[in-house]
Amino acid sequence: MRLVAFVGVLAVGGVVHAGGIIDLGNADEFTISQPTVQTKVGSFDTFLNEYLLDTGASGILVGSSASDELAGLGLQTVATYTDYGVAGPETTRVSAPYDFHYAGSNGVPLTLPATRLQTSRGDFSFYSGIAGMPLMMNRTVGLDLAAQADMNAPQIGVAFSSAAPPTGGTQFSVPLTLVGFPASGQANPGDPLPVAAPLPFVPVQVAAGSHRLAGNFLLDTGAQQCILSSQAAFSLGLDTNGNGSFDDEAASFQTVAGVGGTVMIPVLSVDAVALRATGGVDLSLGHVAVGIVDIDPAISGVLGMNVLNTGWEVYALNTFLGMDPGPPGLFDRVDLDFRNAAATMQGELRLTMNAERFATSGWEVAAGSTFTIGPDTPTTVHSLANQGLIDVGTGRLTVSSGLTAAVLVGQIAAGFNGGTWDGTTGITSSAAAAEPFRAVGWVDNGDGSRTFAFAAQGDTNLDGEVDLVDLQNMLASGRYGSGQAGVWADGDFNYDGAVDLTDLQDVLASGVYGRGAYAPTARSHFPAHDPAAMLGAAITPVPEPAGWTLLATATAAAWRSLPRRRRR
Known about the structure:
By secondary structure, this protein is an alpha+beta fold. Helix 4 (312-320) crosses helix 12 (549-557).
C-alpha cells in the first residue's frame, strides 16, 4: 500500500538521489522471537538468568521467580518504587547497588557497575527478567535476525559493540530520538532510584482508510505486536461505529502482560505503517495488526518486533519441518546505534534488507525519481514498472516477466532522447552519455524475460564483444536495408526503428569491432551505507504471494494466547 505519493530529494556525497516509498509487503501479525541476554547479578550464581533485551524498558526489572531466587541468595532491597506499564501501576523493590553482568549470544561479557535493579512480583512468561536501555546506552547493539534460520541455534543473534554498525548490502537508516521519562515513583523523596535510561522513538506514519497519522512511536523490542493509544486509534477512525469503544471493530482480543499485571486489549488492523528513513524514504508494511492500549500520555504508539522480524519465523518454521521455506525475512539485521545517545539524545536504527527478498521482488520506480543501477544491485527482478528514470550506468538488469518489448523500447527511446542519453524519463545510461558509440541495448531471452544493459553499438547479443556473430545477426534478421522495422538484436542501434547504413557506420566507427571485450567505463561507486544510493530511494519491492504462508498462519494462531512483555 502506498501511503503518500511524494518524491523528496537528498544530496549525499554530491550525488542527488530521490526519495520515495518502499512497499515491503504485509507485516507479520505478531512475533514470538525476541532478543535476549544472559545475565548475572553481583556474585550470585543463578539459574534464572535469561532476560529479554527490551528497548521499551527504561530500567532492569527482575521477574517474580528470579527475584525469589536472588533473595534466597542474599540480594538486598532498600526501597520501593512505583512503576507504570500496560496494566497500570506496580510497586517494585529497589535493590542495593550490584554489578550487573550481561552478554549477548556471542558471549562477550559486559558490566554495568553499581546498578540498582527492580524486583517484581510480576511474571514475564519464559523470561527471568527485562533488561532495558541501560544496557544499550553508549554502544551499538546488533540483532542478527537471519540467525533464526540456523537450525543448530535458531534464535536472534545479539552482539554489543563500541564500533559503528556494519555496512554493506541494501541498508536503510531511520533516525531515533531518545526521550527521558521522569523518575516519579519514589515512596519517599530521599529514596534511591533504580537505574534508568531514556527510550528510543522512531518517526512513523500510519494509514487507515482515508485517515493518516504521523508521529514518533516507541521502538520496542519487548513488544511482540504494534500498539496504538486509544487517542491515536480514534484519530485514525478505527472506532467505525462511533460508540467510543473498539470492541465491536476488534479482530481479536489478547491478554497483554507487563508491569502492573495483565490486561485484555482489542486488536485491530491498519492498512499500513511506514518508517520514515533518511532521505525521505518511507519503508511501508501493510495490514499491520495493532493492539489498543494506553501506556503513557507521551506514547501514541509502539513499533513492535512483528515489523522488524517479519518473515523469519515462518521461514524458520518451514525449514524445521522440512518444507519449502518460502522467501526469507525482510531484514537480515537490525542495528541500533546509541554510541552518542547520552550526549545528543539521538540514535540510529539501521536496517539491512535480505538480498534474496529484495532480488525476487517486483520493483516500481516512482514518477520523478531516479534509480541508478550499481554494482550491488541485483541483476534480476521479477517485474518492473518505471514511471521515473532508470540509469543503467555500466550495468544490466533482467526483468523476468511482464515487461513487453514495446514498453521496453519506448522506455529506452525516451532515455536516448535523440542521441544524447539525457532523457528525464525512461531508461538511460550516464556512461553512454559520456562515451561515443555507447548505448543501452536490450535482448529478448526467449523465456518471457528481457535484459537491458550498457553496450557498445553493434553488440546485438549483449555478450560484451562486437564481432562476426553480431554482423551475422544483423544479416540473418533480414531487416538490414529492407525498410522493415527492426530492434536492437536486428541491428537498430540508434532506435530510429530501421536497420540501415547508419547503424553499420556506427558499429565501424566505434573502433571495437573484432577487438575482443570492450572496456566499459568505470562502474559507479556507492557508499556502503547510503540508503538512497543503493535503491535510488525510488524502488518499491512488491512481494509475490505464496501458499507457504498458510501453514505459518495456522501455527501462529496457536501462540496467540502467549502474553506480551513490556515495561515502560
